[in-house]
Amino acid sequence: MDDYPIGNLIQETMVIFVCATTGQGDEPDNMKKFWRFLLRKNLPRNSLSGTKYAVLGLGDSSYQKFNFVAKRLHKRLQQLSGTALQSVGLADDQHDLGPDAVVDPWLKALWEKVLTLYPLPVGKEIISADICPPSKYKVELLGLSNGDAAMNDSITSSDTTESISPCQQHPFYARVISNSRVTAEDHWQDVRLVKLDITGSNMRYSPGDVVMVQPPNFPDTVEEFIQHFNLDPQTQFILKQNDEDIPLPWQLPQPCTIHHLVSHYLDINGIPRRSFFELLAYFADDELEKEKLQEFASAEGQQELFSYCNRPRRTTLEVLQDFPHVSSTLPFEYLIDLIPAIQPRAFSIASSLQAHPNELHILVAVVKYKTNLVKARQGLCSTWLSTLKPHEGDVRIPIWVKKGTITFPADPATPVIMVGPGTGCAPFRSFIQERTSNHIGGNTLFFGCRNKDKDFLCGSEWMSLVNENLLQLFTAFSRDQEDKIYVQHRIEEQKDLVWQLIDKHKAYFYIAGNSKQMPTAVTDELMAAIKEGNNLTDQQVEEYMKELEKSRRYQSETWS
């Protein structure tokens, strides 16, 4: 939204807003300027009196501030006298059918309303769904390259200078110092502490910030994909615009080899969405394949699509292998329309520049699990990171830093309570290192895992700080006794301490980790401690929590 000239908004007669929510209910990075302008107090109340609008939120109900930005935007547009075409759409990534469960009926209702307000001119009609849309880009195939050297140069060296901070378009290729497994070899979960050298990167970070990592595809799946389409990996091509409003993908060099396209751009390990099947169906000559693709693309076939694709986590490559006939007729230029770009992955930074100058650490839980498919499912980025062997040579990975959603108090006298089971302790390791490197105490950590001897992440570091009286540590090893004990149980046991720190010493309270049940359970115990500590009613506790959130003394960073 920040690319839009916001001053023109007052002149628009109809606007459709699509927005996501990040962190603590914050607007995305590319909406911050837009949102700041919209919140200006000097905007007249009737600024948008001539504007009709609709808001569609893209969210995830496993987060506490579900679609918070869409709700706030809808409310603000109403305050500025905008006229809502329909109620705000709240798409949910956690729904069995994905966001489409909300998006489809919302869009259908929207277009019906729009066509009522703005009928098509005489002689014009809506383009039939049977007509295949043109490809986004024209492709001009060139000759074979002399190997993939030019492409490799573009992804293994960094052109970042001291005057440029690394970003997605210009990442810094950080050298991997070490890649150590920090869980026992016989433990089911492989967790890595990856240390990176960021010397000369011009990157600065603070506790709570995140590092973005851009992974490539697995070499074996790249080879499978290229063989499936009978492509020559060394063939070069250039892209040209088919529509002046659709820019060329900046991630791809010009010219580009097919090997580079598949290795570093096409998300062939992602789970395809409904639109994938809708586009693929246009090119199907085989009747059985066409019928199945159209079923998966239809509103009625979404449960079937969920069972085929989402539940077993079937990848784009595996789907294409299940539809060999249409794969053989799919024009090459539509591959870029069909398969989205690989998205960077975010990791909480687990180190402090004060404690480790020119270094950046991340804790990585390697994702691997079984479904009803023969081949185990693997997380693209975490698996790639786990395979890096810095002791065998100069290994570098593309990274850049972004501001995180957690912010820590600047006053060193402020006590902090941190609840971080598993890799949720990563941002707290950063903050604890920052404070303890200056011999600052007042740090309380509730850490949880399965077994003390298997996955007590950074355990020796915590115990050393406990011995120096710089850290107060409460551990919950859920499988080390008959009854399972989790971090929320430890908070319940320490409710008097928690209340004293929160109320008397104005402590900050943080939660980080998996978003399934832990954050809610921990928050419930915090509220119980507040209620009992000051003999409050439920409504008073709610008000107390709102004040903590408003003052940023209660923050949560969770992920699914």
In brief:
This protein has helices spanning 32-38, 68-79, 100-117, 149-156, 219-228, 258-264, 274-281, 287-297, 302-310, 316-322, 324-329, 335-338, 380-387, 426-436, 459-467, 487-493, 495-504, 518-534, 538-550; strands at 14-20, 52-59, 83-84, 89-92, 137-144, 172-181, 191-197, 210-213, 235-241, 256-257, 345-348, 359-365, 368-369, 377-378, 396-402, 416-419, 443-449, 471-477, 508-514, 554-559.
Question: What do these coordinates show?
Answer:
It is a single chain. The protein is an alpha/beta fold and 560 residues long. 32% of the residues lie in helices and 20% in strands. The chain is built from 19 helices and 20 strands. The chain has a six-stranded antiparallel sheet, with helices on one face. Helix 1 links the parallel strand 1 and strand 2. Helix 7 runs antiparallel to helix 8, helix 16 packs parallel to helix 18 and helix 17 crosses helix 18. The chain is globular and about 75 Å long. The two termini are 26 Å apart.
